[in-house]
## 1
Amino acid sequence: MALIVHKYGGTSMGSTERIQNVARRVAKWARAGHQMVVVPSAMSGETNRLLGLAKELAGSAHSDAHLRELDALAATGEQASSALLTIALQAEGMQAVSYAGWQVPVRTNSAFTKARIESIDDVRVRHDLAQGKVVIITGFQGVDLEGHITTLGRGGSDTSAVAVAAALKAAECLIYTDVDGVYTTDPRVVPEARRLHTVSFEEMLEMASLGSKVLQIRSVEFAGKYRVPLRVLSSFTPWDIDIKEEAKSGTLITFEEDEQMEQAIVSGIAFTRDEAKISIIGVPDKPGIAHKILGTVAEANIEVDMIIQNISKGGLTDFSFTVNRNDHARAIDMLKAKVLPELGNPEVLGDAKICKVSIVGIGMRSHVGVASKMFASLSAEGINIQMISTSEIKTSVVIDEKYLELAVRALHKAFELEQNQA
Ligand code: ASP
Ligand code: MG
């Protein structure tokens, strides 16, 4: 008998029928002798619906007072789904109780709409578990020290579940979703993409930050920090499948040291279209210029991803960097207004038709030639690489957006990711 946390995403909670299925699945786990804590998302579409209503009424409001109300509003989605799931569990003959974030309480800081969990009180939950109850805790929300309801940012229920699992020292946190695990890449781009039975926590972290949308990145960070065993699996299998089989399905996120299996050198290919490039041609090659350019961009709260500076010719150099596509126009305006005049008005080129493709694998640490294999396979397809960045376990390239699918397929093949690993 173990303490297990289940998390169900919005699609899994999308209708009363689906909620009933979730209840039956949870009841099966409880009847098998496990202590069960469940963290649901809002029913799919509900958070968008609520925030849409707020937008209709808000005008251009952006104060903290406004953000406070957005959180009070958005948090109701999870409150409703949690109560509905509890009702469904009771109808299944289970003892069950639901708690909103403030009732546990799940303490967060006061950063409305992007709060961070600081602590979770386990007393009430443990008491209920000891009495044989299934405990349902709202995802996505918490409460700050002044009693204001907060939310954790979109997709935050993943983080809630992992944090609850960490606080309760759960044996495992199962993230039920509409896909059956983490894939070598997006199967919509590469039909041969394969589900990974295991992926290391570090690889998962890279994949989440490089564009894989399976898990919210903060939930992966949290799992790493508290070493929470995490599994991503499908909620669309029949609820009554054999529990032993279910417990082994999906993708397990492991910690490298625990890893006994031989690792593939490259585990997956992540990509994102959300990027745009800015190049400034012919800036003076002297101290302080990078700071002037990137400092100004940072002041506008725009995050910079890749940066490249060329060698200089005649005291001038070219400077390129990438930002999120949503920030592209604003970043260029900022530069034109605040930076370029001081640099003698060099030319700026913007390119929003780029994408970033990355190979990820902890095996890259101990193997040479992985990046060059990547470059070779892109060049064989005639794809020009515009920018490169590397870390210990990933290599990313920026290429023309129109080659995204071609590049991902070529790399998937080059690294033989369609092949089953032992
Ligand atoms: N309901 C929230 C959202 O849609 C949180 C979540 O589903 O994880 O972003
Ligand atoms: Mg989600």
## 2
Amino acid sequence: MAKKRRIVIALGGNALGNTLPEQMAAVKITAKAIVDLIEEGCEVVVAHGNGPQVGMVNNAMIALTHEDAQQPNTPLSVCVAMSQAYIGYDLQNALREELLNRGITDMPVATMITQVRVDENDPAFQSPSKPIGKFVSAEQAKMMEENFQYIMKEDSGRGYRRVVASPKPAEIIEIGTIRTMVESGDLVIACGGGGIPVIRQGNHLKGASAVIDKDFASCLLAKELDADYLIILTAVEKVALNFGKPDEKWLESVSVKEAGQYIREGHFAPGSMLPKVQAAVDFAASKEGRTALITLLEKSRDAIRGTTGTTFHL
Ligand code: ADP
Ligand code: MG
């Protein structure tokens, strides 16, 4: 039998929804798309984002400090850990059910609580850029700056939001365990929300106040697992040049060199499409035969068959 193609899938916001009921419904659709790939003969590893969920957990933990003066505020790394567990819980149940519905009874599904080491000297710590949580008034923002030492920024006339650092992932701490589980045929969910950011202090791993971009963490996971494909599932079927403009052009197959040119020309929005294209290029450039794909969740089977999506290759 031919070796199975190994795929790391990075799920974006639209695969998980924004609220508890939305997530419960969304993971059912997501599970179908993932099991489609398994039925295509692929070995799948799942990674995912956590934007709305980590904001939600963070807000809930702030509310707790208002109720009970004895409660200190919860570190962001702990909020990421909570979001991994909550999303993993919904995803692994939906995947298990979908596998059983299709008669696949021999594939255990498990979520790995994953820590990802970041460099404490990463320049991202000096310029927090990633907004999380809900919008608040100027007054509330001032209170949060004073009480929690948060950095609050005004966001395009809509109010203030907390911004956090988004450093690059340097090392997946649990990679050995993830690899063992994948090698034994388990369906593994790992690096949720980009991983829990930690800084190494001797033998101690200290939680960092940051949120790692899931596109970069998934890329590192795919390289570490020597995957054949990195598939980034998002809200568009393909990546475009001149996105949203009259001369918009949807891309099908892009070389690493061409993608570099398009990045320099500014075709991809920072904070949304840019990190995806950067992660796709990084993966495709890392070794001959590695392919990255950006497409819609519902189109992942067509994309792996080569009929849609944007493909990145050396
Ligand atoms: P995710 O939650 O999957 O990370 P994002 O909203 O962060 O999703 O990023 C996907 C979005 O990027 C698309 O829905 C689209 O609006 C936007 N986008 C920006 N530039 C481009 C581009 N050049 N081509 C396609 N989509 C783009
Ligand atoms: Mg995003």
